[in-house]
From TrEMBL:
Keywords: DNA-binding, Transcription, Transcription regulation. PROSITE patterns: HTH_LYSR. Residues 16-73 form the HTH lysR-type domain. Gene3D superfamilies: Periplasmic binding protein-like II, Winged helix-like DNA-binding domain superfamily/Winged helix DNA-binding domain. InterPro entries: LysR-type_TF (IPR050389), LysR_HTH_N (IPR000847), LysR_subst-bd (IPR005119), WH-like_DNA-bd_sf (IPR036388), WH_DNA-bd_sf (IPR036390). This is LysR family transcriptional regulator. It holds the Pfam family LysR_substrate. The keyword Transcription regulation applies. Belongs to the LysR transcriptional regulatory family. SUPFAM superfamilies: Periplasmic binding protein-like II, Winged helix' DNA-binding domain.
Length: 318
């Protein structure tokens, strides 16, 4: 399918040159080939050549010599307003660095969050954006490390927050912080006190936060190497479900430290270091590389990153 309307197919688009419009504007202002050439810092022959191209392109003499002046034709006078509008549009909006004014923005910010990131940061992100951009809208999209690239493109997300790895060349990222893990349990229901041994850890039933539904992790390999085995009694992708289960039940659960710090419950659960080695993970802010220099994306990245880091510091101090 042609990108041009049918009535424009006969136009010689290769002959259309922005420099010709600039030359036309200079000729209209100075009404002199020599003065127009000096204004644009080009040779007089080059200006004469541009005028010849303009005449051919627009099928009109455009300027006729009368003494030392080049007098514009009626068509040139009619075109001058349009040409100035085009040049002002190009210089004022296309070529000038654009700015983003969040207080005037009425569109939608789209942010992809893992379950972990949404639970920790969604309220703080909303407050931070709404404070500076009260007329904007905010839409959160659930993502994980398997589908985030697809959601990025399908939903045209502005940002993604999570522990993503193996990012392609089309995605840029900013490191935010590193998260570790703790063991969480109801000390009365389990009869455990801190610290717990690896034997106690394996002897009690476990609740597992499992985004992909798997009930076996690298923890089970570590226990197997020590001739130990645990029982995963229940798994859920939702941390809130697991947290509800822990209260009043003989269950242990390994969760990220910041999740354990959330003040969503008043259940007095106990947390302690895990008796097995569980790798830390980095949380990153991601965006599409092609959108990285857009002022709106730059503003949003700065706002979200500073909000997340501040929220992490507050949770770590609890």
């Amino acid at each position: 399918m042609s990108v041009f309307p049918s009535h424009k197919k006969d136009i010689n688009w290769r002959g259309v040159d922005l420099n010709l419009l600039i030359s036309f504007s200079a000729l209209m202002e100075t009404q002199s080939v020599t003065k127009a050439a000096n204004k644009l810092a080009i040779g007089q022959s080059a200006m004469s050549h541009n005028l010849s191209r303009l005449r051919q392109l627009l099928d009109d003499p455009l300027f006729e010599r009368q003494g030392h002046n080049m007098i514009p034709t009626q068509k040139a006078l009619e075109l001058s307003v349009t040409v100035e509008k085009i040049l002002n549009l190009i210089t004022g909006e296309l070529l000038q660095p654009s700015t983003f004014e969040p207080e005037l923005f009425t569109g939608t910010f789209k942010i992809g969050l893992t379950d972990y990131a949404e639970l920790l940061f969604a309220p703080a992100i909303f407050d931070a954006i709404h404070t500076c951009s009260p007329h904007s809208h905010l839409s959160f999209f659930n993502v994980d490390r398997h589908n985030y690239q697809t959601v990025f493109n399908d939903q045209q997300l502005d940002l993604v927050i999570g522990s993503m790895t193996n990012m392609g060349k089309d995605i840029s990222s900013q490191y935010l912080y590193t998260e570790d893990h703790v063991c969480l349990f109801d000390s009365k229901a389990t009869g455990l006190n801190t610290p717990i041994t690896i034997e106690q850890y394996s002897a009690h039933p476990h609740a597992l936060v499992s985004p992909d539904g798997q009930l076996i992790t690298q923890v089970d390999d570590q226990l197997k190497n020590r001739a130990l085995q645990r029982q995963v009694a229940v798994g859920s992708r939702n941390f809130l479900t697991v947290r509800h289960l822990l209260k009043g039940r003989d269950l242990l659960c390994v969760v990220s430290r910041l999740m354990a710090q959330l003040d969503l419950f008043h259940d007095d659960l106990t947390q302690c270091p895990t008796p097995v080695d569980i790798a830390d993970f980095d949380i990153r802010l991601l965006w599409l590389h092609r959108n990285g220099t857009h002022p709106r994306n730059e503003w949003l990245r700065q706002r979200v990153a500073s909000t997340v880091i501040k929220q992490v510091q507050q949770l770590q101090q609890q």
